[in-house]
Amino acid sequence: MSDRDYAGDINPSETWQILKDEPDSVLVDVRTDAEWTYVGLPDLGGLGKETVCVAWQTFPRMRLNPDFLAELEAKGVRREQTVLLICRSGVRSRHAAVALTRAGYGRCYNVAEGFEGDRDGAHHRGRQGGWKARGLPWVQS
User: Does a structural domain hold residue 141?
Assistant: First the structure.
């Protein structure tokens, strides 16, 4: 994978700014339903938007979701939109950004720090980078 395979990596603060500045932009969370439910989701309500949730891999076996593109299209994500993809740490979302770009989607960005960021010295996430650690709005069920 190279940077030419998708629009590039951006941090959560840059993601928020694009979502704010580009009315047609969309945030796609590619984590699993368990992560959405128990860890939380970016809250875009203040921007008049909702996070689109489509799993890149299926829980619990973490196999690639064969219906990823179809589910994304069914949720109204269009090829001409700016698509910002987020996962836990930026790995799955990068793969999804590459796949969407190859499928004809225009500007697909990877939120490199993800929702929870990298692990700290105690192997905990959520304290070093990521959507939550940067103080961006989020909700938990």
Answer: no
Please give the residue range of the domain that contains residue 36: 3-135
Which CATH number does the domain housing residue 50 bear?
Answer: 3.40.250.10
**How does DSSP assign the chain, residue by residue?**
--GGGSSEEE-HHHHHHHHHH-TT-EEEE-S-HHHHHHT-EE--GGGT---EE--SEETTTTEE-TTHHHHHHHTT--TTSEEEEE-SSSHHHHHHHHHHHHTT-SEEEEETTTTT-B--TTS-SSSBSHHHHTT--EE--
- The answer to whether position 36 is within a domain reads yes
- Is residue 45 a part of any domain in this protein? yes
- In total, how many domains does the chain have? 1
Tens digit of each residue's pLDDT, the chain (141 residues): 555 789 999 999 999 999 999 999 999 999 999 999 999 999 999 999 999 999 999 988 899 999 999 999 999 999 999 999 999 999 999 999 999 999 999 999 999 999 987 666 665 555 667 899 889 999 998
Per the domain annotation, does 140 fall within a domain? no
